[in-house]
Write a structure and sequence with these properties.
With about 350 residues, the chain is an alpha+beta fold. The chain contains seven helices and 18 strands. The strands form four sheets. Strands 1, 2, 3, 4, 14, 15 and 18 form a seven-stranded mixed beta sheet that branches. Strands 5-6-7-8-13-10-9 form a seven-stranded mixed beta sheet.
Length: about 350
């Protein structure tokens, strides 16, 4: 699948042109956005963030930082304008610390949304973490946990890393936030799974999926009928083994068995949608899953996932201003840097989202 320019996105463009019509008046928007290196300009002790300082290789000045904040905030505002409402929940990846989140939610482009945030400092060597923006009038936070990465696989995953390498390995924690939405118990996992550097890491991502799946099982046993959303940059496509076998994501609601998740972006990826491009291939690494409680559309008065068109249940947000319009990366996400130069873009990923309603 090779999609090189904006004009080769007919399915996505058609969806964006008509998505508002498919959003019920009482719907809640729940999404994810890898914001690509949202760093402040100061060095944090213990973090490998020197490139994002004024003296570093990216010459990351306060002016560039402010432009980055404004750009990300403008994307969130543009989605709100398109949907006719702000996101109730928006998971983020690649945020450095509380300061950048405080600065982001205070930006004039999105200040009226009144976002609060949840963030837990993690062990990633670069200092990038996951976070969750939420609107407190719609979502009440009850509990926050960080799920650390480990190699204690119950299913016997065979790891490429030696025991010594495993002891030194560090990656992002999974952020789990439990709360109440529309009077119902609701939990969201925000993930950024190990990378594909060198074409490796499938075993690591399978273990990440296993960690989340095990925790979901615990929540579903403890809170009967709990609604669960899993979102993040998984560094795998929705049809890859870690998503289907370990996280247990299914392409259709009809084929779900007990304890499995609905994977709306699996069908979308097959139909030509993409959120990230690498060597001419489009991926949907930015996935969102829901558990069985959110797929029961027959349950009167209960929250459930809504269709985005006649066929799909998800959205990829890629209006023209988020697309590189010229040069070698034309037709791909308009990123912050290109060839080592700051180009005042947004991110190397497009945001994704779903809607739910009663």
């Amino acid at each position: 699948m090779k999609i090189r320019t904006l004009f080769l996105f007919p399915v996505v463009l058609a969806l964006l042109a008509g998505c508002t019509a498919f959003i019920p008046e009482d719907a809640y928007v729940i999404g994810f956005y890898n914001v690509e290196n949202l760093f402040d300009t100061e060095h944090d002790r213990g973090k490998n963030d020197l490139a994002f300082t004024p003296e570093g290789e990216n010459a990351w000045t306060p002016d560039k930082y402010e432009k980055k904040l404004s750009n990300i905030a403008s994307v969130i505002a543009a989605m709100a304008e398109k949907n006719g409402r702000w996101h109730t929940l928006l998971g983020l990846a690649e945020v450095e610390n509380d300061r950048v989140l405080e600065d982001l939610v205070a930006r004039p482009e999105i200040a009226e949304a009144g976002y609060k945030f949840v963030h837990v400092e993690g062990p990633d060597v670069r200092g990038i973490d996951c976070a969750l923006l939420y609107r407190p009038e719609e979502f009440k936070v009850v509990d926050v946990r960080a799920l650390p990465y480990d190699f204690n696989s119950a299913s016997g995953i065979v790891f490429e890393k030696t025991p010594a390498e495993q002891a030194e390995f560090k990656t992002r924690d999974v952020l789990c936030v439990r709360g109440v939405l529309a009077g119902e118990v609701f939990a969201v996992y925000v993930c950024h799974w190990p990378s594909r550097n060198g074409g490796k890491g499938s075993d690591l991502r399978c273990r990440a999926a296993e960690i989340v799946r095990e925790d979901i099982f615990t929540l579903e046993q403890r809170y009967e009928g709990i609604n669960i959303v899993v979102m993040g940059d998984m560094n795998d496509n929705p049809e890859d083994v870690c998503m289907t076998d370990y996280l247990r994501g299914r392409e259709t609601i009809g084929e779900m068995a007990e304890g499995e998740l609905f994977s709306p972006f699996l069908r979308m990826h097959k139909d030509g949608f993409g959120t990230e491009e690498y060597h001419g291939e489009w991926n949907i690494f930015d996935c969102i899953f829901v558990n069985g409680a959110l797929t029961d559309t027959d349950a009167q008065g209960s929250l459930h996932i809504c269709k985005s068109d006649e066929t799909h249940y998800g959205y990829v947000f890629n209006p023209p201003f988020l697309v590189q319009q010229e040069g070698r990366y034309a037709g791909t996400p308009f990123r912050t840097f290109s060839g080592g130069q700051f180009i005042n873009g947004y991110s190397d990923h497009y945001p994704t989202y779903i809607t739910i309603s009663k």
